Amino acid sequence: MFQNLLVHTEGRIRHIIINRESKMNALNKATLAELHTAISDAFASENVGGIIITGAGEKAFVAGADITEFAEFDSAKGEELARLGHSKVFNMIENSKKPVIAAINGFALGGGLELALACHIRIASNNAKMGLPEVSLGLIPGYGGTQRLTNLIGKGRAMEMILTGDMITAEDAYEYRLVNHVTTPEELLPAAEAIMKRILSRAPLAIESAIKAVNASVDKDIDGFEQEIELFGQSFDTDDFKEGVSAFLEKRKPSFRGK
To answer: How far apart, in whole angstroms, are the C-alpha atoms of residue 75 and residue 164?
Structure first.
């Protein structure tokens, strides 16, 4: 089905692997289109609870965009490229109803780091290198990097990373709070799966509401506190809430159905 992705499901976890290892898993138009399809399919499937995104091999998560595709672009085409990427992939991931974890194996540069930033949780192998080197090409990040990186690590460090274009190590990324955990290449996917399994043991509708509420905290057009209050109230009308309370009182594990 896909030329640039490997997709498989283990339990309720959908694995999406960017499979352009000879190109350091660089994002071209075809790969972005396939990502949109694969992610949409995962969101639509009742059998999928969450997604883990990684890159093929140990050298790269995604080592940037495919520069050859936009080398001759003018401003209009450049803006169109960014808007399409935002709507079809990056914003779709961030605002999804299901949790998405980035397992960063190796280089995550430019659009690759922006892809990881759009995910809800990031885990890195200790050989990972991350950066937004666009200024060295006469560009700036165009897939949300200036916004999401700043929200995650603060204005000062985001400015330094973006203005220098320098890469940082996995340890630096952990110190900056860009990634949640650092592990070995061998333990990267098991660690991501362990976190996802813990998430998927919780109430699906509560997970969806929690993602929405946390995202509201960085949306200047939304009162995050009001959003939280409304979503908190709505939770009381769900079967999952009733099951969660019953299970707690009966001292048993809950059986959530996402209703």
So the answer is: 23
Q: Could you read off the pLDDT tens digit of each residue along the chain, which spans 259 residues?
A: 899 999 999 999 999 999 999 999 999 999 999 999 999 999 999 999 999 999 999 899 999 988 888 888 999 999 999 999 999 999 999 999 999 999 999 999 999 999 999 999 999 999 999 999 999 999 999 999 999 999 999 999 999 999 999 999 999 999 999 999 999 999 999 999 999 999 999 999 999 999 999 999 998 889 999 999 999 999 999 999 988 888 898 888 888 888 8
| Catalytic residue (choose from 134, 193, 208, 230) | 134
Please, which residues bridge with residue 201 across strands? none
Residue 94 a catalytic site member = no
How many CB atoms are located within 10 Å of the residue 149 CB? 24
134 catalytically annotated: yes
- First-residue to last-residue Cα distance in the chain: 32
Of 114, 160, 208, 250, the catalytic one is 114
Distance CA 188, CA 126 (A): 9
pTM, two decimal places? 0.95
Alpha helix locations (H) across the chain?
29-44, 75-85, 91-94, 111-118, 145-153, 155-164, 170-175, 188-200, 204-216, 224-235, 239-249
